[in-house]
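Dear support,

I submitted the protein below through the web form. The confirmation email said the job was done, but the results page showed an empty box. After a refresh the structure appeared. I'm attaching both so you can tell me whether what I see now is the final result or a partial one.
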Amino acid sequence: MLIPFLAAVLAGAQPISVAPAAALPAPPLQMTEGDFTIRDFAFASGERLAVLRLHYTTLGVPHRDARGKIDNAVMVLHGTGGTGRQFLLPQFARLYGTGQPLDLARSYVILPDGIGHGGSSKPSDGLHARFPHYDYADMVRAQHALLVDGLHIDRLRLLMGTSMGCMHAFVWGEAYPGFARALMPMACLPVEIAGRNRLWRKLSIDAIKADRAWQGGEYKAQPTAGLRTAAALTIVAGTAPVRLQTELPTRAAAEGWLAGRVEARLVDGDANDTVYALDASRTYDPLAGLGAITVPVAWVNSADDFINPPELGLAEKLVKQIPHAKFILIPISDATRGHGTHTQAAVWKQYLKDFLTQTEPK
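What the results page shows now:
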């Protein structure tokens, strides 16, 4: 299991206590979990793994067209430290209900755990720092094998991705042109991880490795001091500044909210898993190939995202390089959650609904 602070913040959980969303009718999830095995998986680094396990969850049932091909598959990809099961949380799962954009009466939803995450193969399984140094290209290639060889899907109706999954969507669009009829990347930029985005990741990694308990990744006990620093940086990266200022208007309120949160997020985690997950973005840089993405793209970011700040002005320029793409910047509101807005479906559900209508197969 990955460290909870990564799953909670980067994968989109709300870091501030808020009133629960109004109850929605529970959709008939028809949920299945499974593991797909790939033998002798070769990583881009040149390393190999004799058996690579990819865990996944599916919702709904596949529909086959007149040719016997599955035509209603939607894959949703999680962020750093998350798992596919994060999309079962109410703030996202509202999309699966009757009449909703991903109504499970019509959609077959695939929620994989990326390499290094959840129930998929990861360093903490036993190899520790000897686990292959995977990157996003490796993760996407394994996802492709899961779909084609494991679930026998040769085309997706839609590929959605949040945060790291957003970056995976751009990698998918270039590596497997046309495999997904439409792409909806959420909360990322299609450029090399640099600037402040790389800094907080590298600072987190360096803090863990500088801990005396690290021992080159073969620690006897978790390097807690380093993990505390990484947790603190991740809390900052995942929060929404305007919302924090409003809800924590005094020093006492801010410190009271913070009390115990770092410690709580260190439970049941693993330092190697965290280092690998943060560093997997090191080779990501889809910029040069954006023009090869010819399917429709609805790219959604939020204006209060610390990790992908709109003031960089990159998205408005880069979207012009993608032939059939539109960029949507969600303005700051009481409903946005900083980087985690990508999992608050109520904020952007209408964009998804409109996009599915516009890209409906003829």
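Response: this is the final, complete result; the empty box was a page-load delay. Confidence is low (pLDDT under 50) at residues 11-27.
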